[in-house]
Specification:
alpha+beta; eleven-stranded antiparallel sheet; about 30% helix
């Protein structure tokens, strides 16, 4: 009864009706203050909890990038999407969009998509099963085993080659901003990479510019995306056309079922 009396002055015989309004105001001020304190305290607790999950807080940008590269190098499996877009002064640019899956043990890499310019795009699909390469004929839809094939295109999607620029080829890294991606919060870094590791010839021309960027998830230090952007402006389009392109690869490391070579691939090539 005492609590009720403090809540409503009309139930408290100790105060006069003239004091009811002031008593109610004091009550509501105290209630609002208490609610604000609770909300502020909860917000601060949530903020510091989120901060505690950020594994990049005590690391330099170069260390974060290196950790992302090491995670990629040791990955047992992942899915990926790679896209190449751009434009050229001569009107021709071989765009490509590829998606695939990688598994370390037993080694199996699946790559599918299309490449080409405009209406000349060609569907592509490969399986690298150990040392055996299988290619799908885009016209007949049948599979063939390719002996002594050049595998550079497929090796480019394997973890060792993808991680090398971030570990052995990293010269410097600079944080640009934080972004919300599908997999959570990530930090975007601008990278300076060794041209030898990237297997590109550095250009001293003022009209050419190459940029490397990497997104790393703050809670796991897993790489999210890697981007290469190149721009070349030209005053003589006939001799050396202008060129702009952007390459972006996105990784998904969530657990999946073990990869196996489809029966149709093995059955069509066993008779060779």
């Amino acid at each position: 009864m005492r609590f009720a009396a403090r809540r409503d002055p009309r139930l408290d015989p100790r105060i006069t009706p003239e004091q009811w309004g002031a008593s109610r105001r004091v009550y509501w001020i105290r209630l609002v203050t208490l609610v604000l304190i609770l909300v502020l305290g909860t917000g601060l607790a949530w903020f510091y909890y989120q901060q505690s999950l950020d594994k990049t807080r005590d690391l330099q940008p170069e260390q974060v990038v290196e950790q992302a590269g090491l995670f990629l190098a040791k990955a047992e499996a992942y899915r990926f999407l790679a896209q190449l877009t751009g434009e050229s002064g001569d009107g021709y640019f071989p765009e490509a969009s590829m998606h695939g899956e990688y598994q370390r043990e037993p080694l199996l890499l699946h790559l599918a998509g299309e490449a080409g310019s405009g209406e000349n795009k060609v569907p592509l699909e490969y399986y690298l099963n150990g040392a055996d390469l299988y290619v799908k004929n885009p016209r007949s839809g049948t599979w063939i085993r390719v002996a002594d094939a050049e595998l550079d295109e497929l090796y480019a999607f394997q973890p060792d080659n993808l991680a090398a620029p971030l570990v052995t080829g990293l010269r410097s890294a600079e944080e640009i901003r934080r972004e919300q991606l599908v997999g959570g919060e990530a930090i975007l870094y601008s990278l300076e990479l060794d041209p030898k590791v990237m297997q590109v010839q550095p250009s001293a021309a003022e009209n050419e510019r190459v940029e490397y960027r990497l997104w790393v998830y703050t809670r796991t230090l897993r790489p999210a995306q890697f981007q290469i952007s190149m721009r070349r402006e030209s005053e003589d389009e006939l001799a050396k056309p202008s060129l702009r392109f952007q390459y972006l690869i996105t990784w998904d490391f969530s657990p999946t079922e073990p990869l196996v070579l489809p029966d149709e691939v093995s059955s069509q090539t066993n008779g060779e």
